[in-house]
Amino acid sequence: MEIAIAVLFIASIVLIALSYFQRDSIKDVEQEVETLQLSAMQEIYKLKKKMTVLEEELLDTNFVAGKTNVSHIDQHTVKQIISKYNNGMSVEAISRAEHVSVEDVRAIIKDNERVLV
What are 50-63's pLDDT values in tens digits? Predict the structure, then answer.
């Protein structure tokens, strides 16, 4: 009986020692999930950056300067006027800053209402 207990005790020690040396598959799976999560977050960040760039380009192309009364104003000035208007600057202040008539500023803002919303 004592021999059986001693054999079982030695076997249990050997099994415990073997369990410490085996690879833990749960840790491997957790590490893989963590890696996938990080790569997904990086991809989402890249996509968001691309979306903002595309939105900016789309907004830049949506500015209208082709109406008959404002056709003499270049596209850069139109962008500046819209930007200043979005930042809360008054029409008169924009007119003075961009050296454009108040009527032209109002026409540009009116023509670009759908971009401003």
Answer: 998 888 777 766 55
Task: Collect all residues with Cβ–Cβ distance below 8 Å to 98 and sequence separation of at least 6.
Answer: 77, 80, 81, 84, 105
Residue 23's SS3 state is: coil
Cα 69 off chain centre by = 38
**The pTM is what?**
0.41
Domain boundaries, the chain: 31-116
Q: How far is 65 from 57, CA to CA, in rounded Å?
A: 16
* Cα dihedral value 24, 29, 32, 33, nearest 10: -140
Asked whether the beta carbons of 78 and 65 are under 8 A apart, the reply is yes
Which pLDDT score, from 0 to 100, does residue 62 have?
Answer: 57
